[in-house]
Amino acid sequence: MKEPVQKNLKDEKKLQKKVIKSEGKELRFKQTLRSLPDGVILMSDSWDIQWMNPIAERDLHLNAEHDVGKKIHACYPNGELLKNILKGKRQIETQNIHGRIIEIRVISAGTKYKVLVTRDVTEEKRSEEFRRDFVANVSHELRTPLTVIKGFLELSEDWQLTEQQKKHLQLMYEQVERMGALVNDLLTLSRLERDSAPAAKEPINLIKLLTESAIDGRFISQGNHSIILEHLDNATVLGDPVEMKSAIINLVSNAVRYTPQGGQITISSHRSEDGLVISVKDNGIGIAQEAIPRVTERFYRVDKSRSRETGGTGLGLAIVKHVLFRHQSHLKITSELGKGSNFQIVIPNDRILWN
Predict the structure, then answer these.
(1) Using one digit for the tens of pLDDT, what is the confidence trace for 141-179?
(2) In this structure, what CATH number is given to the domain that contains residue 163?
(3) pTM for the whole structure
């Protein structure tokens, strides 16, 4: 009879060791989560709060002592925003009772648990707003002196000048024009960054839009490239006409700058499962694969010298990205060095009427 009793005691000790080891791991895990700069709330799959760290309590004005065991949307004062998360939206921003801007994300942790992560982005947002205001204000201030300088340069056409003086004035005029284009692009980008709301759904005739973009592209090219249209769909795009035309012309202009003289640029469209695809394809210098994710950054240039020579501001693709964001669309880029690039605008089905 002693052997079964001893065996049970051994099994009980093993089990106790496992429990102690497991509790130790859980304690270390929670201590780690407590020290994180972000808020963390552990929840069941049915949104019941199981544990939270002090940062989460501060960010969402919760109290672990009273709120653990309750559903998250029953505890947080701003229930409407959390309802968006319950509907499937996995990232939102809210303002807590202290006026701080909190980013909330939900991460699935297997089939039984969810993790809600909070992050105070107030200073980040203030910094972004300060930068946007600074850029917009400086750009507005630059417009007046540039207009005055340009006016005097235009008056100089009637002066008696030497050939050397004419060359100097022409160079000054070109730089003023380039500066003016930069100011206009900065103001456009600033406006788009401020207005992130979905764009209007005005009907835009696709064939007319692409035809006009090709005409503008030929003017920019000054006859140095072949710009052709092919496979145009008879469709209506629902969006902001000025913004959509700006996005396409920026792509065509970009293709002109990075395609050597005599090259070809093709503007086309086709229907896909995701919606309508507008393509601007060239046989220019191409883009290295590692550079593709960066080409929509402000002032990023694949070839700095070439872009400056052709009057690029370095903001065209950043403008395209923001325009497409307002139209729930996205930009797809494929390219190969020495063979050319293909920039595709993918517009979702709910912004397309097929004629």
Answers:
(1) 888 888 888 888 888 777 888 888 888 888 888 888 888
(2) 1.10.287.130
(3) 0.64
